[in-house]
């Protein structure tokens, strides 16, 4: 589970500071996708950066599996990102020289102990995830040989490679047409359920929001609306 509790984040602006996130409380539960929407400049990406432990907030707590990430050292935060958090950026940022399979396998080399010993299990998990995102037959292709939708699927599979409990996704459909965008959202919903991740998804694409388990709307860094959607099957909501 991920919980952002009374998060405030400011940035310097000359002699003053601009508030990007203003006292936001948000909970993502296992097995659910919480949509975060709002106009450009509303603080969505800043909030996601805090959730990813990439930026330390001015105030508030970030709890990931009951650990307060705001109290971690830089090294400990890096370890948490490696072990607990999957991040899907708006651009896939795939390495041009690596195949789809290798894009996933390289995640095993990012500072993890005994990475060489784990290579067989890593290869098996990479194969499983590529199959899960519908790319088993594309495993040996490089990014330039894949479509935009396929590259985004590799991006999602890569973020899940280390079996994170939290999945953070920034505008996954922004570069895709409506049909391919819908298939990516369907994939995220399915994998979130199957892998029991707590998923936060930033999007401008309002058409997909009714399919999510909860939605929060940010304006000027504040939550102005928070509600469950038709996809919510139980009492879990986005904000608690």
CATH fold title of one domain = Rossmann fold
Mean pLDDT equals 90
CATH top level label of one domain: Alpha Beta
The biggest sheet, with number of strands, parallel, antiparallel or mixed sense and barrel status, is:
6 strands, mixed
Helix content: 25-40%
Rg calc = 18 Å
Numbering strands along the chain, what is their spatial order in the largest sheet?
A: 6-7-8-3-9-10
Shape: globular
Number of helices: 6
First-residue to last-residue Cα separation? 13 Å
Structural class of the helices, strands and pairings?
alpha/beta
Q: Quick one: how many beta strands?
A: 10
Residues in β-strands, percent: 25-35%
Order of helices and strands: EEEHEEHEHHHEHEEE
What is the element layout, followed by pairings?
Blueprint: E1 2-13, E2 16-28, E3 32-37, H1 44-51, E4 59-64, E5 67-68, H2 74-84, E6 85-88, H3 100-105, H4 119-132, H5 148-159, E7 166-170, H6 178-195, E8 198-202, E9 214-219, E10 222-228
Parallel strand pairs: 3-8, 3-9, 6-7, 7-8
Antiparallel strand pairs: 1-2, 1-4, 4-5, 9-10
Report on this model:
It is built from 6 helices and 10 strands. By secondary structure, it is α/β, with parallel strands linked by helices. It has a domain at 2-95 and 165-228: Rossmann fold (3-Layer(aba) Sandwich), CATH 3.40.50. The strands form 2 sheets. A 6-stranded mixed beta sheet has the order 6-7-8-3-9-10. Strands 2-1-4-5 form a 4-stranded antiparallel beta sheet. Strand 4 and strand 5 (67-68) form a beta hairpin. Helix 4 (119-132) crosses helix 5 (148-159) and helix 5 runs parallel beside helix 6. The longest helix is centred in the C-terminal third of the chain and has 18 residues, at 178-195. The radius of gyration is 18 Å and the shape is globular. It starts with a strand and ends in a 12-residue tail after the last strand.
